[in-house]
Amino acid sequence: MKIITVLPGDGIGPEVTASAVRVLQSVFQNSKTEVQFIEKKIGGAAIDAYGTPLPQETIDQCKRSHAILLGAVGGPKWNQQSMQLRPEQGLLGIRKAMGLFANLRPVEAFQALVDASPLKRSFVEQVDFIIVRELTGGLYFGRPSERLGPNQDRVVDTLAYSRQEIQRVVEKAFQLAMKRRRKITSIDKANVLESSRMWRELVNETSKRYPEVAVTHQLVDSAAMQLITNPSQFDVLVTENMFGDILSDEASVLTGSLGMMPSASLRADKVGLYEPAHGSAPDIAGQGKANPLATILSAALMLRYSFDMDREAKQIEAAVRDVLNQGYHTSDLQIDRPDHRTVNTTEMTDRVISAINQNETIHQ
């Protein structure tokens, strides 16, 4: 029996996780795999229910699970909370509690959506890379931020990394590169930051064990420009926590919407947390406008990395591609073409499930 903990979160989180659960149920039913979905609270919903963004019972349940499916957290309702009680602390906390150190964000141009990107077609149609972001160190996990001075007119945030934290995520990136096109771009700010100099040293040390992988070092400001001006050059990008957070959101421009960006947060074993890269979008919550595809594609990553069900993962990805090629999309994707039709969250999910079942029937 496989156990998946579902953390719907806030805003559109419950809608998109419900869509992904429906897709997973269809896939597991077709493969005759027994699975149990258990729902727990995180983020703002947990603050409302328990007074904390990450209740202990949520942590305990996640630790009993084979995989975790997360929606999104946050919203203006909780903006006045202290830093320690913000919904986002629930997300940071569960990553830390579960030891999830590597965030994988695939960025692939779907041909049906190339025109949804504000960039020229020639820039994006060959895009296929993956960003590997370190998750448990850096500025987000330094010692508590401080306000200093008699009038508290200075602030301090601490960027801290250990060799072990850097080494394990770099190793993961090289392992991925070996399964792809064997190219790594390591992104840092080694001309300014000591942490980046250590990062670069460890990348160079690791590369000696992977002579087949070509390694390029790039400063983060240059990488930000290259992601827009020449994105097809990249295969595997590896970087620290904050740089990866910013660059992966920038990369969503290439796919036309954050609603198309899945992610997987992994540790050394097969346990992982899977979530869309987008936020909770409280302004459209409950209206059926949410794009479920990033969460559905995150569910495909779950099958691949946590359950070794690569065939079924490819089924989901192929189904998403088929539905998009048929001209269906949600309202976040601005496509002004007569052969494209805007659908709501439920209809998009229905069509993906139908495509999965259709492809499964053909291959039986």
UniProtKB/TrEMBL annotation:
<dbReference type="GO" id="GO:0005829">
    <property type="term" value="C:cytosol"/>
</dbReference>
<feature type="binding site">
    <location>
        <position position="249"/>
    </location>
    <ligand>
        <name>Mg(2+)</name>
    </ligand>
</feature>
<feature type="binding site">
    <location>
        <position position="105"/>
    </location>
    <ligand>
        <name>substrate</name>
    </ligand>
</feature>
<dbReference type="GO" id="GO:0009098">
    <property type="term" value="P:L-leucine biosynthetic process"/>
</dbReference>
<dbReference type="GO" id="GO:0003862">
    <property type="term" value="F:3-isopropylmalate dehydrogenase activity"/>
</dbReference>
<keyword id="KW-0560">Oxidoreductase</keyword>
<feature type="domain" description="Isopropylmalate dehydrogenase-like">
    <location>
        <begin position="3"/>
        <end position="352"/>
    </location>
</feature>
<protein>
    <recommendedName>
        <fullName>3-isopropylmalate dehydrogenase</fullName>
        <ecNumber>1.1.1.85</ecNumber>
    </recommendedName>
</protein>
<keyword id="KW-0479">Metal-binding</keyword>
<comment type="subunit">
    <text>Homodimer.</text>
</comment>
<feature type="binding site">
    <location>
        <begin position="75"/>
        <end position="88"/>
    </location>
    <ligand>
        <name>NAD(+)</name>
    </ligand>
</feature>
<keyword id="KW-0432">Leucine biosynthesis</keyword>
<dbReference type="InterPro" id="IPR024084">
    <property type="entry name" value="IsoPropMal-DH-like_dom"/>
</dbReference>
<dbReference type="InterPro" id="IPR019818">
    <property type="entry name" value="IsoCit/isopropylmalate_DH_CS"/>
</dbReference>
<dbReference type="Pfam" id="PF00180">
    <property type="entry name" value="Iso_dh"/>
</dbReference>
<keyword id="KW-0520">NAD</keyword>
<feature type="site" description="Important for catalysis">
    <location>
        <position position="140"/>
    </location>
</feature>
<dbReference type="InterPro" id="IPR004429">
    <property type="entry name" value="Isopropylmalate_DH"/>
</dbReference>
<feature type="binding site">
    <location>
        <position position="245"/>
    </location>
    <ligand>
        <name>Mg(2+)</name>
    </ligand>
</feature>
<keyword id="KW-0963">Cytoplasm</keyword>
<comment type="function">
    <text>Catalyzes the oxidation of 3-carboxy-2-hydroxy-4-methylpentanoate (3-isopropylmalate) to 3-carboxy-4-methyl-2-oxopentanoate. The product decarboxylates to 4-methyl-2 oxopentanoate.</text>
</comment>
<comment type="similarity">
    <text>Belongs to the isocitrate and isopropylmalate dehydrogenases family. LeuB type 1 subfamily.</text>
</comment>
<feature type="binding site">
    <location>
        <begin position="279"/>
        <end position="291"/>
    </location>
    <ligand>
        <name>NAD(+)</name>
    </ligand>
</feature>
<feature type="binding site">
    <location>
        <position position="221"/>
    </location>
    <ligand>
        <name>Mg(2+)</name>
    </ligand>
</feature>
<keyword id="KW-0464">Manganese</keyword>
<keyword id="KW-0028">Amino-acid biosynthesis</keyword>
<feature type="site" description="Important for catalysis">
    <location>
        <position position="189"/>
    </location>
</feature>
<comment type="pathway">
    <text>Amino-acid biosynthesis; L-leucine biosynthesis; L-leucine from 3-methyl-2-oxobutanoate: step 3/4.</text>
</comment>
<dbReference type="GO" id="GO:0000287">
    <property type="term" value="F:magnesium ion binding"/>
</dbReference>
<feature type="binding site">
    <location>
        <position position="95"/>
    </location>
    <ligand>
        <name>substrate</name>
    </ligand>
</feature>
<keyword id="KW-0460">Magnesium</keyword>
<feature type="binding site">
    <location>
        <position position="221"/>
    </location>
    <ligand>
        <name>substrate</name>
    </ligand>
</feature>
<keyword id="KW-0100">Branched-chain amino acid biosynthesis</keyword>
<dbReference type="GO" id="GO:0051287">
    <property type="term" value="F:NAD binding"/>
</dbReference>
<feature type="binding site">
    <location>
        <position position="133"/>
    </location>
    <ligand>
        <name>substrate</name>
    </ligand>
</feature>
